[in-house]
Amino acid sequence: MFHEAPGGSGAWWGWVIGSLVVSAVFLALLQLIPQRFRRYVILAITFLGGLYFALEFFLPTHAMPTPQDPKAEGNFLTPYLVPFGNVATVIGAWTVGVGVLNLCQVHGRRLTRGGSNVIYSFAFFVSMIAMLVFGLLKDVNKTFTDIYDLLFMHGLNTLDATMFSIIAFYIVSAAYRAFRVRSAEATLLLITAVIVMLGQVAVGQMLTSAIPKDSMLAFLRIEGIRNWVLTIINAAATRAIGFGLGIGGLAVALRIWLGLERGSYFE
Amino acid sequence: MEHANLMVQILLPLFSVIIIAAILVARRKNLFIRRIQGLTAIDEAIGRATEMGRPMLCSIGLQGLTVPTLQALAITSYIVRNSARFGTRAIVPVAAPEILPVAQEAVREAYTGEGYPEQYNADDVRFLSGRQFAFAASVSGILVRERVAATFYFGTFFAEALIFAETGNQVGAIQVAGTPSTSQIPFFIAACDYVIIGDEFYAASAYLSREPTLLGSLVGQDIAKGVLIALVVVGAALASLAPVLGQAFVKFFTG
Amino acid sequence: MNILTLLQNLDRRWLYALLLLTVTVPFFLKIRLPVTVSPPTQKLYDKIESMPEGSFVLFGVDWGPGTRGENGAQTEVMMRHLMQRKIRFALLAFAPEPSVLCQNIAVKLQKEYNETHPEYGVQEGVTWVNWGYKVDQVNILKALVRDVPATVSADVHNHTIADLPVMKGIHSAKDISLILNVNPTASYQAYIQFVQGPYKIPMGLAPTAVMAPETYTYLDSGQLVGMLNGLQGAIEYEQLLGVIGRATVDSNSLSFAHLLIISLILLGNIAMLLERSQRARAGGAR
Fold it and tell me: How distant is the Cα of A49 from the closest Cα of chain C, in angstroms?
């Protein structure tokens, strides 16, 4: 059922146009469903989609060797796993336009209404159009390639790095404000944080570097204490939180899959 | 793993049965849930924004249609419903385009459900950017320009969490956060007023709505965690006895 | 406002100015402080050191310009080690930027080694390849483990993968000796779930320092053979390799910035405790 057609060939175009037509017909049919039945259609599609992946995961596997992977295993649903996964990717790709459309609507309204923040909406349109134009034309000639590099590599990427760098400043002010000895737990947190931070860097490690690594007191070396905190205490706590999050995620996924979820969006 | 091994084939259906059974029991009995301070503070934060006459910001995280995002949307719906009757404006920035129509629908339904459909403003539920730091810069800009009085960060966050949490602190907003992203919890604790940790995030919808199905699911989760704890204790004992029992016995459980 | 209250409530602009100085001035200091190599870094180094020449490494790079300070240094130092050991590697990215950024790093190292150590024989297409940017991490990894040439049909220069000498004998996950992933987010878990776990391929991880604490569980369980903990991990790795790279140059700034944060925290707490005792004495005196 799923096989590749050579790109640009007649069969390929046939598949693309056929898929578009079928999708349009399917969407039109979905629109015709009366409002009161739409929830049941959504529940049915959600259930069937989840059922496929659950069955593929749980059903017993047997040897399904390929020339490239003689020891491959799977069940009768496994060959369809990647194509069905691609369906989700393609549907997700359609939504990229939704985001851009929404941005244009919001900022377009701001431009027409005016106001104090209109300059930001103007900047949005200028930068979006510039990236779009030079992104599409970047391979036309060297000038366009250079402008594209200037905008992407030296503009956008540098701004990304700048925003990440702000975190360093913010962590200084947040740590200075938050790490106060107000209770026993806060004191313990502060001491642990200081030990881990000192054990992390060369200057901190120098504080206990006089203790020989093979002596009886080597456990007092600050990097050793730091490793112990990270691998024993931190790992245990992270694992415990991970268990809780895993079970919680399973519960929410189960509720959504079986249509048991409640809340204003799900009713 | 690509397919379930024996332990997963036993444990996952077992936990699922426990959760579903608890849901069925909860529909007939009242179940207790302990106080979670971070979630109780949501109403306090809404009240503060209403008193100050300034808007709130509800961020649902960076990911698209995933379980944490849908959970964050459920919490956001609760916040919007509660703020609707006071006329407090809620701004909901979105980072993933596929979640935008879902978020718009959820917020519109929340206002309509409370009888205030006219309060829904399409411009307040908007896509900002799919790029992590562009989104952070946008949210920070909104916090400063709109002089937000209360912020709610529920969902999956990464490094950008501290950027808008600290900006919110600088504008004097009361901040409530909850995320399954373990690495960001310390930053939220440093910058926010209330933080819910770990699986309290998944308990939030049950806690806020007190819906029997959700409460039952929460009790089921706790029973499943009890089973896991028992397995950890048994596993630790078996691993300690491995020299006596033999490695094959331990390997049966570790796969 | 007395001095103790002032010390507890320093204007954040002073804090930012201090941080700016603390980070920039050490760049001009020529001192190199030795660091103790942590066990996760040592394990990763030992693993790569023990691999035979000609082994193949899947080098996942998922970082962007925002985390270039940490992840760029980690990528560079691990690439150095692979090139020195004559181990083949393929770069794989699930975002557009890392593909370009890591290509630049690899080309720079190739040029450097061809001038200083031609015996390493570093050459794109022969000892390393850039598979480029792929969309949808989960589906690509699931397909990749079964059939590499079909999933990654061409490299970033549109050369057919199957024709490249570097890809000789690489058909599926069974032919991959090691996975390395440089990642500032939690998407490394997809590598563990779909590649490392099912096929029991050793995996090394280089997360940012923020993400590192939650990865210790994977180290403990043996799913990761080693890890570079942020920029400090890269510094330790450079020390093991005996090179002075970008991480070592940044190490002074890292050290002094940590000291600044600790000093400010202690300053605020000492001022708070002194003020409390002052108030207690004043209250007792009345």
Answer: 16
